[in-house]
Amino acid sequence: MELGHTRSTTNDGVVLMAQDADAETLLPNHHAGRVLVRRPGPKLTDGVVTHVSRRPVDLARAGQQWAAYVDAFTTNGWQAIEVEPADDCPDAPFVEDTVVVDGDFAVIARPGVASRVPETLGASRAVRDLGMDVVAISAPGTLDGGDVLKLGSTWFVGLGGRTNQEGVRQLTALTAPRGISVVPIPISGVLHLKTAITALPDGTLLANVAAIGRPDLLPPLTPALDSGPWRMILLDDDRILLSSSAPRTAEMLAGRGYTPVVVDISEFEKLESSVTCLSVRLRG
């Protein structure tokens, strides 16, 4: 695939890419497959919050919402695989931050909040049990999976929140043999890059533009319509999973011919979560 970017490399080996004017649209993978999930534990209400005030979480309601979230995948052709519980880790259901997967290749993350590092143990066992080729980010590098936006063989990675420069450097080195280009994107005021950007099947990127420090390194951005958790998951080429907290986004998707699949994850949103945080998609 012709990426249409000009490459340059920083002194620490991190690849930077600037868009050419005639760049081909970078498209996300929208194929259905398997999905890794992890059920919430009894300490969920103690999950880390950074940019919002803490509010009590209703554990029973969160469990019901999580089950409905998983059902949204299975009723749309996905196989759900449960990662082993990590009940001592309040943020364990936000499994996306623990591992980044490309086909049969998995990078075990090293979360930027130290209390979350033990969450990676179960995720590592899960992908190894699936027979994947597994590598890992090591100290002093940090990488949260929520910072990795994959568009074809280009991975845009949020820098400045939970992921640090050393984590980006390691990810670049680990993925280069697979022909993957890693592009660091400075972010501010949000947890992760995927808190600020989400991709539609046609390559449109909805974004909180103010949170992106170098929008020139990305394909063109379209401002998000909702102020709530409007991020989304592509279930297939026309069905898109998103939160009931994003009604204007759902209306926009329907107007573009997509089928919104709406779930209520309001208890998890109290902990700065969106639909992307609660799963790792292993696409066909």
What does this structure look like?
The chain is α/β, with parallel strands linked by helices. It has one domain (24-283): L-arginine/glycine Amidinotransferase, Chain A (5-stranded Propeller). Helices cover 19% and strands 26% of the residues. The protein contains six helices and 17 strands. It has a three-stranded mixed sheet with strand order 4-3-17, with helices on one face. A three-stranded mixed sheet has the order 5-6-7, with helices on one face. A three-stranded mixed sheet has the order 8-9-10, with helices on one face. The chain is globular, with a radius of gyration of 17 Å.
Under CATH at level 1, the class stands as Alpha Beta
Q: Tell me about the largest β-sheet.
A: 3 strands, mixed
Name the helix and strand elements from N-terminus to C-terminus, one letter apiece.
EEEHEEEHEEEHEHEEEEEHEHE
Spatial separation of the terminal alpha carbons:
18 Å
Share of helix, binned? 10-25%
Strand order of the largest sheet: 4-3-17
Rounded mean pLDDT is 90
By helix and strand content, what is the structural category?
alpha/beta
CATH topology value: L-arginine/glycine Amidinotransferase, Chain A
Instruction: Estimate nothing, just give the exact number of structural domains.
Output: 1
Shape: globular
Low-confidence stretches: 1-25
Instruction: Return the CATH architecture.
Output: 5-stranded Propeller
What gyration radius follows from the Cα positions, in whole Å?
A: 17 Å
Q: CATH H level: which superfamily?
A: L-arginine/glycine Amidinotransferase, Chain A
Individual helix count: 6
Proportion of β residues? Answer: 25-35%
Number of beta strands: 17
